[in-house]
Amino acid sequence: MVHRFAGIFRHELGMSMRRKGLWVAYGLLFVFYTVLLFSPPPLGEMVKGEVIARSQLWPVAGRFLLAINVFCPLVAGILAADRMQRDVRLGLRELQDSTPLSRPVYVLAKYLAALVSSLLPVFLWVMVITVVMTADGHAPAGFLAAVPVAFLAITVPAFAFVVAFSLACPMVMPLSVYQILFTGYWFWANFIPPSLFPTLNGTLLTPSGIFALQAFFGGPEHSGHPGPQYTVADAISNLSVLALCVVAVLLLLERDLARRTRRA
Amino acid sequence: MKGASLKYSWLTYRRDQLWFPLALFALFVVISLILRRPAIRFSLARAYLGFIVPLIGGIMASYAVLDDPAIELRFATPVRAEQTLLARVGLIVVVQAVCALAFQLFALTLRVDLSPLGGVLAVQWIWLLPTLALAALGSAGSLAGAQSVVGAFLVGTVWLVELMMKGWFELNARYAFLFLGVFTPGHPDLALNQGVIVVATTTLFFLSWALLHQQERYI
Q1: Is A21's CB within 8 Å of B149's CB?
Q2: Least confident span in A26-40, A86-100, B147-161, B204-218
Q3: B164 vs A70: CB contact, 8 Å cut-off?
Q4: Could you give the residue ranges of the DSSP H alpha helices within chain B?
Q5: Is residue A225 in some structural domain?
Q6: A41-50 pLDDT, tens digit each
Q7: Portion 142-161 of A in contact with B at CB < 8 A
Q8: For residues B196 and B204, is the Cβ–Cβ distance under 8 A?
Q9: pLDDT band at A220 (very low <50, low <70, confident <90, very high)
Q10: Count: domains in chain A
Q11: Which residues contact B163 (CB under 8 A, 6 or more apart)?
């Protein structure tokens, strides 16, 4: 079983990483972020001679990854949306059903490969930026440790959440429709203040990373809604709810594939 | 002959290009009926016309040409590139236009005051220009990348980046800000902004047309 999992994982990861679209999409965003990070105001945020204080290392690392979470999960979600649907559309599932590969292993390997392929370019870019900032004296060496931890707590859960939905939802609706709904959802559920309009922002279903930033990294951001900062218990609840959603969506996806096999 | 052609067009027409914009239109109508405060109703009308209609138009246009199981057969027929673009992207824009106009009529019946967005013509500009621009970006992106998903990504990202970084665009890149007319209808640089967007849109459609001639890239 491990061999089958590794085979599907390796194959899907290779296919995803070789997509031109992935590199074009992330490349454009990385150029955009890099310009913002290294340009002086008003264009960007780099103030000449400014050094991140040791006491501010963790909040700054958290805010950096929260800024990444504004746009990068959108790319991950849109790009991952055709990964599962493509296998069904091209008849690959029928071939796979005739092999000893079990559906849960297939779904899990496909999901993890899509997740890793969307996280890997972001992680590499984030670490390059961190190394450059440390090397030019803009950040102390501790930043090199703080950023990967923030990546794990803020970026990975958001990507895990959107990739699971992006694999499953296009199985029951057209791809273009899902991508429109997903883009709108990402804006509505993460960045519209609840005081302005009814939204999921501020509930435990918020995947932007604001809970983890405030609870684990001491970030002052409120994402537009008033009230006390989120506590560690809030952040753990938020991460647990997101993880439960991922598991539920993958289970539903596996059931959907089983139903399609029965009807074939 | 004409009847058969129309029947074929209808049978091969992607129905999601019709039902999905109508579904979102219906959703905004229902929300507007539920939320009765005039300020919220105005915000909803502005959001639907200025943001939702362009997003739907842009992403739908990304799938307009390449997402077709009979694309090789179509390339084998003597249909010109401009005809294909006009038929596929034009139809999407027409559906969006009907939805936008219908929503304005609906807003009028609810007595929602759209005058903060400008006169009747100015209101048409706030949805038509971003819709055409994102449709052009979507079709050019998907043809340049030879994958519909590339166009969809470009449209989604430009839409989100411009909405999230409204202040930054107004300060640093106001001529490339698609939603300047929605957020600040009386902005002194609005005419120049619209001119730049018209030129960019035309260029992107021209690029799509040129790319569509390289049929071997999409087979």
Answers
A1: yes
A2: A86-100
A3: yes
A4: 2-12, 16-34, 38-47, 53-62, 71-75, 81-109, 120-145, 148-164, 166-172, 180-183, 190-212
A5: yes
A6: 877 777 777 8
A7: none
A8: no
A9: low
A10: 1
A11: A187, B51, B179
> Is A196 among the domain residues?
yes
Tokens of A236: 């753990």
* pTM as predicted: 0.88
Note which residues in 155-174 of chain B have CB less than 8 A from chain A.
Answer: 156-157, 159-161, 163-164, 171-172
Rounded to an integer, the average pLDDT of B137-160 is: 93
The answer to whether residue A105 sits within a structural domain is: yes
Q: Mean pLDDT over residues A137-141, rounded?
A: 90
Burial class (CB in 10 A: 0-12, 13-18, 19+), A65: buried
Mutation target to probe the B interface, by most B beta carbons within 10 A, among A177, A185, A187, A197 is A177
pLDDT of A223 over the 50 cut: no
Query: DSSP states of A54-89 as a string?
Result: GGGHHHHHHHHHHHHHHHHHHHHHHHHTTHHHHHHH
The SS3 call for residue A193 is coil
| B12 and B70 Cβ atoms separated by less than 8 Å | yes
Q: What tokens were used for A151?
A: 């990546």
- Euclidean distance between the first and the last CA atom of chain A, given in angstroms as a whole number: 25
Residues found in chain B: 219
Q: What percent of chain B has pLDDT over 90?
A: 70
Say what the pLDDT of residue B4 is: 65
Assigned token pair, B11? 């049978």
Task: Write out chain B residues lying below 8 Å of A35, CB-based.
Answer: none
Helices A20-38 and A103-135: crossing angle in degrees, nearest 10, is 30
Residue B13, number of CB atoms within 10 A of its CB = 11
Q: How many CA atoms lie within 13 A of A49 on its CB side?
A: 0
Q: Is 60 exceeded by the pLDDT of residue B59? A: yes
Q: Among residues B198, B178, B19, B165, which one has the least CA distance to residue A177?
A: B19
What pLDDT is stored for residue B78 in this prediction? Answer: 85
Count contacts between A and B (CB, < 8 Å): 84
A45 in a structural domain: no
Residue ranges covered by each domain of chain B: 13-218
Q: Closest partner residue to A191 among B62, B156, B164, by Cβ? A: B164
Which pLDDT score, from 0 to 100, does residue B1 have?
Answer: 52
Domain with A258 in it? 2-40+52-263
Q: Which positions ≥6 away from A32 have C-beta within 8 Å?
A: B161
